[in-house]
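Field guide to reading this record: the first block holds the primary sequence, the second block holds the structure written as discrete tokens, and the final block holds curator observations. Each block starts with its own label. This record concerns 3-methyl-2-oxobutanoate hydroxymethyltransferase, catalogued under organism Parvularcula maris.

BLOCK 1 — SEQUENCE
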Amino acid sequence: MSAQTAAKKATAASVRSRKGGEPLVCLTAYDAPTAKLLDPHCDVLLVGDSLGMVVHGMPSTVGVSLEMMILHGQAVMRGADRALVVVDLPFGSYEASREEAFANASRVVQETGCGAVKIESGTYAAETVRFLTERGIPVMAHVGLRPQAALVDGGFKAKGRTEEERARVLEEAEASAEAGAFAMVIEGTDEELAAEITRKVACPTIGIGASAACDGQILVTPDMLGLFDWTPKFVRRYGDMKSVIEEAAEKYAEEVRGRRFPGEAETYRLRKG
Ligand code: KIV
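BLOCK 2 — STRUCTURE
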């Protein structure tokens, strides 16, 4: 480890201890070079199952497999020196039983070397959070809008429009925290609900489209880099990757078509004999 990378590695425990303190900076990452660029700026790098949509072009996260999560988790681990790497457990890998959840979560931890897993934690999943945590796997919870529930919800819908729904999200959050979640993503709620959850749970909350009332924030990195024409309404673009890629590709294509690339500088000259 170089002097530059000797900064202390974040852990689930160090992230947990940030409750109510300096806001947690979190972003998603899916590959090694991007993880390396993001790592100095982030407390947490999440290998989110959003990779199904933003990397693999799927219509939702439901089709993402455990193998895909492990492969991308391994890549991100190669680029991350100091941020805590958290890997999502995909749809179908943790819901049926706590034992199956442990078998799959332990595979993720052993095969990637990541520091924690995340599950979309409806109230039913609290016992899974406890089961994994007690057996040595730190769990980040995820409440509010749960993208893996898109099929039953009829799409990606913000949560908390009715009193009943607000009570359910709060219940999910409290159950996950009491079961031992070291941190919790709150997605797609209004500020009032995010603030109430943040006040009531002992672990840090990390908001996405859930206001500044949370203990930290996360965004899907290609969204915040400006890679797509469409992003959810709450996403601020901090870059214009789409234009950077389009302009570079156009310039390259023009040079190739005009026989200006490769020039002398880009051509190998091999010494023969
Ligand atoms: O999969 C993902 O990227 C996530 C974030 C939206 C929090 O779960």
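BLOCK 3 — OBSERVATIONS
The mean pLDDT is 95.
Strands lie at 24-28, 44-47, 84-88, 116-118, 139-144, 183-187, 205-208, 216-219.
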